[in-house]
Please model this.
Amino acid sequence: MNKPALLQLFAILSLMAGILAGPSALAQTSLIQNAPARRVLSLNGSWNYILDPYETGFYDYRRMPFDQSPSGKGGYYDNQKPSTAQEPELIEYDFDHSAALQVPGDWNSQDAKLLYYEGTIWFKKNFKLKPAAGKRYFLYFGAINYEAHIYLNGKKLGMHQGGFTPVQFEVTGKLNPSGDNFVVVKADNTRHPEAVPTINTDWWNYGGITRDVFIAEAPETFIVDYKVQLAKNDPTRLTGYVQLDGAGKSGQLVALNIAEAGLRQSLKTDADGRATFSIPARKLQLWSPQSPKLYAVTLTNGSETVQDKIGFRTIQTKGQDILLNGKSLFLRGISIHDENPLIPGRARGEGDLRMLLTWAKELGCNYVRLAHYPHNEIMLKLADEMGLLVWAEVPVYWTIAWQNPATYQNAETQLSDLISMGKNRASIVVWSVGNETPPGEARLKFMTSLVRKARALDDTRLIAAALELHRDGSQVTVDDALGAELDLTSFNEYAGWYWSDKLSDVPNYTFDIKYNKPVVISEFGGDALAGYHGDANTRWSEEYQEALYQNQLLMLSKIAGLRGMTPWILADFRATRRQHPVYQNGFNRKGLISSTGVKKKAFYVLQDYYHRMAQKYDGK
Ligand code: GCB
Model:
């Protein structure tokens, strides 16, 4: 055999070996509910990193992944060191002498040379954890953008795609008994046409390990998942389930205790380790933005206790009304990206997230749209605590590969993980399946399947999507067929900004909306550079944005079914598409708050309007 043919045979054989030795086909344990509350060991902090645009640490010179080659040597995940100082092997990387990045945190905002970087970065962290007998361990990342390959002590745990949902691997039996361990992550934020989101977005493609990392410890049989919520539209019944995982999961007793409400129930798991319940709960004080009451909920199975703080409320629609705990409501909202404009970069934890929600409260909000992808679990808990209703969304954004079954599967997995993560949060009242997806047959099929999936997973919340519309002169029509599947009519409109009109003409638009459902405008807005002043006709000025909001509110007030809005957006955010050298400089300037934290004039227009709406609906 000549050399190329030999190489080819070698490549095929190694590929087969790789497939056989690849990540286990066994079903993974489902996402641990409220995982951060069970954390035993945080892996946040400093991680050494290697920048790898050519993927030298992943592929050999044939483009064969090292983890599929027979020798298995060469991949950066090995963290290889020369065996002796006398006979040093040639190893062209060294994590321990490489620079470090802070985790959680995107790489772009931590080093100027990484601002626009798209590709692979390898991360490594050493940690000490001596596994205890009779315990199970789970490595948990809040989010890694976008594709992550994860290795523990040189062995592959698996791969995950999707930049905003948790990544979890069981590592029981894989930790070194000595207690010395290291974890390596290959994070790759390359954009792909078939990915979710796809190649084109109006937000920064922040890469890296952007949310908390920890190892959770659990008993052999443990409470992996639970749902404790009010029954659909019934404030007098608690329903849900507790799911155990592990060999002894069937026929176990689990105690559900809400001491403050005098509620105690003993549950017994079935053969699948699941105990479902539906019990009367008459005395519960209901959660609302005015009174965000949370109860300490305790689940106990043997020696294991899991605690959560859960609020209880109902949400439904009736004609064009949205009813929260049976009472009509106006959603005084604002859209928010998971970004701290002051870094500027991905929000890195509770402090950053609390700042964003505090701004929303100052604006007079009772509602936030957490666009355009699943936000940090900490954000959802803060919304519970601070009394903000939430629209939670998946990154099915613009032109997804509608015909591709793998793309659908990816979107559905992200939706399922979002719902799994958020299902006990009273604040979440809307699951959104996407944003501005252009109507068409394949797209309708794709989106309808997502809507049905969301309903099958959770029928106690509203399902929505930010729709597109079309215009003819001053007539706007909202008739997207997807609207028939949804509980709210939500659409993005940019009168006064992208629509070629004069600001003073904005109030003349009339809306023909085909659905008799509550109308919640998912976006409107316009850019303003904070500190740039002009008159109401000077684009980019604060005065223009101020007048735009005034005219928008006049226009929208004429929509009979208007029950809320989330203007675009709370704060300026980094956006690669926004390159005007004077006004934008890589930022979308539609924020009501600037990238230095300054409130623009339009902030006060909306604040004043929300004040009036609060008086009208809540009497204060
Ligand atoms: C939109 C998108 C949002 C953009 C915004 C804009 O319709 O949903 O992601 O950032 O418009 O500023 O153009």
